[in-house]
Amino acid sequence: MIIDEYLSTGFTDVDSASNRDVYFNCLVFLDSLPYFREYKHRSYELLRLGQGMTVLDAGCGLGDDVFRIAGRVMPGGRVVGIDSSVVMIEKARSNELSMRLPAEFRAGDIRELPFPDNSFSRCRIDRVLQHISRPEAAVSELARVLEPGGLLLAYDNDWGTFSVTSGDHETTRSLEKFWCDSFTNSWIGRDLCDLFISSGLSDVEIYPGTCVIRDFETADKVYNLRETVRRATAEGVISRDRGRSWIEELVDRTGKGSFLASLTAYTAVGQKNQKAV
Q1: What CATH superfamily is the domain 7-272?
Q2: DSSP conformation class of 117
Q3: pLDDT single digits (tens) 159-185
Q4: How far apart (Å, rounded) are the C-alpha atoms in residues 231 and 3?
Q5: Are 197 and 147 a contacting pair, CB within 8 Å?
Q6: Cβ–Cβ under 8 Å, residues 204 and 193
Q7: Is the Cα torsion angle 34, 37, 39, 45 positive or negative in sign?
Q8: Under a CB-based contact definition with an 8 Å cutoff, are residues 209 and 266 in contact?
Q9: Smallest Cα–Cα separation from 115: which of 156, 75, 143, 148?
Q10: Where are the domains of the chain?
């Protein structure tokens, strides 16, 4: 029986995980990588944050983005982070920055936000829609609580673009598909534009970004390569020998400098229409 945590499925219910540290450590590690820092900071710029704004970060995790955004809306601003995981919220509240910045945290379902209409100047959701059922309900709720003229930004992955370089094309295709299909919404990145327009947002802009990783150990932490091989082997998708050889090749490619894993994600930004005068 496979008991290791799996990042593609475990983030849907962190509170029930047998080893929650896996998810905490994953978020900390991702936040340390240059690509992730760059797209996050770009998201703050695209939101055109300013002093005095009220901002909602939906699916806030450990609160790192909440704290960064809070620094941008001071003085007079406020940032609320909401997450379905109670343990994530507790971690965020225990951060010393929570006492020094205009940030607050609440546990809740982003598909049923506990806020009145038109509550926030800006709303943001980052790599959350890939993990939840009914993502359209989440986007609709974020649009509801956004004030007229306010901006909603979403960033999410398109796992249909996930690729790993290997000489064994058949095994690679099988494993790429296995990992992709394990997400609740594996193609959500390419669906963001439609979700925004369906929720009544206008002036929707889409910005692509590609994460490129050049060493196996980093890719394993981000994409669970070893665990994907274990699970695919257990389900009979590939043989144990082919899985072992695949991992060995990727490690060897790292040593030679030819390892490559990549993924395209999309940032969507849309505006809530002004009320008719």
Answers
A1: Vaccinia Virus protein VP39 (3.40.50.150)
A2: T
A3: 999 999 999 999 999 999 999 999 999
A4: 10
A5: no
A6: yes
A7: negative
A8: yes
A9: 143
A10: 7-272
One-letter amino acid of 272: K
CA angle centred on 213, ends 211 and 218, rounded to 5°: 120
d(CA 83, CA 92): 10
- Give buried/exposed letters for 54-81 (b at 16+ CB in 10 A, else e): bbbbbbbbbbbbbbbbbbbbeeebbbbb
pLDDT category at 274 given cuts 50, 70, 90 is confident
User: Cα–Cα distance between 214 and 93 in angstroms, integer?
Assistant: 35
The tokens describing 268, both together, are 């969507």
CB 142 within 8 A of CB 192: no
**Which residues have CB under 8 Å from 1's CB, separation 6+?**
none
CA of 181: how far to CAs of 163, 166, 238, 239, 277, in Å? 14, 20, 15, 19, 47
Edge-to-edge strands of the sheet including 54-58? 103-107, 78-83, 54-58, 120-126, 146-164, 261-272, 201-213
Q: Which amino acid is at 274?
A: Q
**What is the value of pTM for the model shown?**
0.95
Instruction: State pLDDT tens for residues 142-159.
Output: 999 999 999 999 999 999
Burial class (CB in 10 A: 0-12, 13-18, 19+), 99: exposed
